[in-house]
Amino acid sequence: MIKIEKWLEHEIRFVLGEDGEWWAVAKDVAEALGYRDSNDMTKRMDQQEIQSFNWKKKQTEDYAGCFRDYKYKPQVPIISEFGIYEAILNSRREEAIEFKKWVKQLLKTLRQQSGLKGFAVFRMMDKEHQKNAMDQISQIRNAKPKHYMKANSIANKVVSDNYGFEKMIKKDEMTPEMLRDRQPVLDDTVDLMKVEENLGLDVSVKEAVREKWIKS
């Protein structure tokens, strides 16, 4: 199976691997992220995140049409999701730099929520501490479904408004930039809904979130 995703006018081909995960064509990712070529990108990458895909074995029109640039090269280098993250973190594109800032903020938030002070940041590399942090993430995932149903709607509307859409855009219709902006709005909304319920507060979650996140 093959999927083509467009990011900032770049088409990136994804193939479904034998592991059930989606792998991206290395050449496409390299072009999108501003690398000289795919070799320049993958030489600094964990080799476990790189595989080779033989598109000619599929023998379908879809694959033949999508891999015309590999007409005489049946083996196509592909990279995993983790490989994509590595490629982004090593890229100098402005969007990649913003993504790195977001990742660093996530790590800082995770460090704070796990109870570590800033001077203890190197303990984040301890396996046991990483396990405890992941347990906290699992607790967040187990939040009541009703929180996420309403929160998704609020977050989608806020992001849609900020990007100038008159109607609410669904998550699967959003651009990578919109999805990046959406996550902190969603997190804030879920947290506020849980506080409202636990303390019996009489507040409008929707209005509170919009007041904080709507850009003037």
TrEMBL record:
<protein>
    <submittedName>
        <fullName>Prophage antirepressor</fullName>
    </submittedName>
</protein>
<dbReference type="InterPro" id="IPR003497">
    <property type="entry name" value="BRO_N_domain"/>
</dbReference>
<dbReference type="Pfam" id="PF02498">
    <property type="entry name" value="Bro-N"/>
</dbReference>
<feature type="domain" description="Bro-N">
    <location>
        <begin position="9"/>
        <end position="114"/>
    </location>
</feature>
